[in-house]
Write a structure and sequence with these properties.
The chain is built from eleven helices and five strands; from the N terminus they run H-H-H-H-H-H-H-H-H-E-H-E-E-H-E-E. By secondary structure, it is α+β, with helices and mostly antiparallel strands. Helix 2 runs antiparallel to helix 3 and helix 5 packs parallel to helix 7. The longest helix has 75 residues. The radius of gyration is 38 Å and the shape is rod-shaped. The relative contact order is 0.07.
């Protein structure tokens, strides 16, 4: 059989690098799995960081901002705790964290890690695909901060607070834009990874379908030919068992040889299934075995004349040509009243022309072969960029004409 090659990953042949197709854990954010995931650990670590960081920020801003009391800590806990739902309800979390941060800063509490809570809420919404909601939430937060810093500060704590500088507002706006831009970048990259994963899945499915079709064609060609020979020889043996035991013995010998060959080729197909990618134990058959086909057809009572020389062919084309001739001769044995067939090979204009004729007449409705046999021949030819024409001739016979390129399609 043909050697089957499994695609290798780059470098050392291991799995593809994660930066091409995304960290595997991020797939939890897609589809139904997203709802089942609770980011407990990251939320807990972030909450501890916000509380501890705000404590130190309060010491460094003592006298300028309000004291960090229990209400401030409650706001920090609520804002950080909302992030536990950031993968289930990203829009609500984006607006909720922005609102909590506005209340926190409006109450005059120290600047610090509270901005990180808003940033992560916005980031989660953008990555989840809710871009407009995320932009609205951070815009609301920035507008609220501007109102507090330049107008409402007169009536809000701490007492004697001065208006914020516009330079500070510019810095905050810059950070907001940077956070949103980073979120957009991650979102676009995640969508690209998702498309690549889907394409890999579709490619794997296509390869599996193509492999199933290839194996089905091989099994059909091997078994149909060999079983046809066995069936004919079994009939001959039964008919001559009493009158001509020696001829019956010859028929049984032919049956034994045909069944042995069929078992060997079926075993090669099964070996390919068990160990894909390994080198085949026996070379794939080709037109160099055409005399064996002629001999097997003779054993089934079919005289085959051959004409033309066998050119040098790529392995895939050689196998396809052999199977096409094999299937065509099998169809003559099974479906034609003629006991004579002709096989002609011609090489011209970069193509191999195979013509298989019999003189008919057809012995059943499936003249020329079963649907699966003709379909398999057409699939083999199409895979190489060739064509198959099959149909009855005007004189009552049947013809199969295959045109196969002398160079494999992938080499052109």
């Amino acid at each position: 059989m043909e050697e089957q090659r499994t695609p290798r990953s780059p470098a050392w042949g291991g799995p593809p690098p994660w930066w091409r197709h995304g960290p595997s854990g991020w797939s939890r954010w897609d589809g139904e799995e997203r709802g089942a995931h609770w980011p407990w650990r990251s939320t807990l670590l972030l909450t501890v960081f916000v509380l501890v960081g705000s404590h130190f920020a309060a010491h460094s801003q003592a006298g300028d901002r309000a004291h960090l009391d229990s209400f401030a800590r409650a706001l920090l806990l609520v804002g950080s705790g909302m992030l536990l739902w950031r993968q289930r309800q990203p829009v609500l979390v984006a607006f909720g964290t922005a609102a909590v941060a506005m209340i926190y800063l409006g109450a005059g509490y120290p600047y610090g890690p509270v901005f990180l809570v808003v940033a992560l809420g916005c980031f989660s919404a953008v990555v989840a695909g809710h871009r407009r909601a995320a932009w609205t939430a951070v815009g609301m937060f920035w507008v609220g901060h501007v109102l507090v810093g330049h107008w409402l500060y007169r009536w809000l704590p701490p007492p004697g607070d001065q208006p914020a500088s516009w330079g500070q507002e510019g810095i905050i706006a810059t950070w907001i834009v940077a956070i949103v831009a980073l979120s957009e970048l991650v979102r676009v990259r995640r969508e690209q990874w998702a498309r690549e994963r889907a394409e890999r899945a579709r490619s794997a499915e296509r390869r599996a379908d193509e492999e199933r079709l290839r194996i089905a064609r091989e099994l059909h060609d091997v078994l149909a030919h060999s079983i046809s020979v066995i069936n004919v020889q079994a009939g001959v043996g039964l008919a001559l068992l009493d009158s001509d035991p020696e001829q019956a013995r010859t028929a049984l010998t032919t049956i034994k040889a045909a069944s042995k060959e069929a078992l060997g080729e079926v075993r090669q197909v099964l070996d390919t299934l068990r160990a894909p990618g390994e080198a085949p134990r026996a070379p794939a058959p080709g037109l160099d075995r055409l005399p064996e086909l002629v001999e097997q057809a003779a054993g089934a009572g079919l005289t085959v004349e051959t004409a033309g020389e066998v050119p040098t062919l790529p392995p895939g084309t050689d196998l396809a040509a052999f199977r096409i001739v094999q299937e065509a001769l099998t169809n003559v044995v099974r479906h034609s009243g003629s006991r004579h067939a002709r096989v002609r090979l011609e090489s011209a204009e970069g193509a191999l022309r195979l013509r298989i004729d019999d003189d008919g007449p057809a012995t059943g409705a499936d003249a020329g072969g079963s649907g699966n046999g003709l379909a398999g021949m057409r699939e083999r030819a199409a895979a190489l960029g060739g064509t198959i024409e099959a149909g009855p001739r005007d004189d009552g016979g049947f013809r199969v004409l295959a045109v196969l390129p002398l160079r494999a399609k992938e080499d052109r």
